[in-house]
Amino acid sequence: xxxxxxxxxxxxxxxxxxxxxxxxxxxxxxxxxxxxxxxxxxxxxxxxxxxxxxxxxxxxxxxxxxxxxxxxxxxxxxxxxxxxxxxxxxxxxxxxxxxxxxxxxxxxxxxxxxxxxxx
Length: 119
Prior knowledge:
Elements: H1 4-21, H2 23-37, H3 44-57, H4 61-73, H5 78-110
């Protein structure tokens, strides 16, 4: 079982190195992320759930970790995460089933201890 907190911390350290080594590229990527995540017609939680679904469908473990954590930080419930994973499975078929298990594992590790499904 992947330890998601440790994994994300390792990726963040590598991303800091990239920012130092390729500052223009990483600054542009950060600007793109900020523009895409800016709440407009969709709120931040919905955008993170969309990103999670895409992460599962394209099979990006690191993306799954970042977007599960961000979705939780924006108030996503287990039911919302599960429904998002259902859509990712629908769109990505069998391989998305396997990656949906990664997202569920990450959710279980990142959720607050006293988490409830009521929002």
